[in-house]
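User: I'm writing a short report section on ligand binding and want a predicted complex to refer to. Could you take this sequence and dTDP-4-keto-6-deoxyglucose and write out the structure as tokens? A short remark afterwards would be nice.
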Amino acid sequence: MSLLNFVSFPPLGDERGSLVALESEKTVPFAIKRVYYIFATQKSVARGFHAHKNLKQVAICVTGKCRMILDNGENREEVWLDSPTKGLLINDLVWREMHDFSEDCVLLVLASEHYDENDYIRDYGSFLKQVRL
Ligand code: T46
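Assistant: Sure. The structure tokens for the complex follow:
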């Protein structure tokens, strides 16, 4: 089964332009407890390099693009996030890396839990041990 599960957010456009509505437990398949966004990422910087024990997220590039790698310990897949109408659903226990941010990239992330540093697995070896239990 692919690691790349998308949520599409149809634009509610009219002659003035486009609008996307993100609704907790409706267009977004979980209750949203936190929203953050990543922007002004410096050239050649890669981010992420961790997994979460208990966190679902939807990542949307609202402007610009970046390359997202997901890895469940068995398979590694990648995708360009490059559309404000395309959300990538990231489940628990999935290693993620973000690369090749465009200068204008704004990566919006909707999260199912509040921020908790103890939820992060930041070491790839520990991640592999955990998913292979
Ligand atoms: C993820 C990817 C896609 C907070 O204080 N609150 C928050 O909600 C977040 C997300 C971060 N922080 C602090 C923790 C660090 O001191 O902000 C700093 C940067 O966070 P981090 O190095 O974890 O950023 P990324 O880009 O490596 O990862 C982030 C999320 O942390 C992570 O959950 O899935 O984006």
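A remark for your report: The chain has a mean pLDDT of 97. Residues 124-131 form the longest helix (8 residues).
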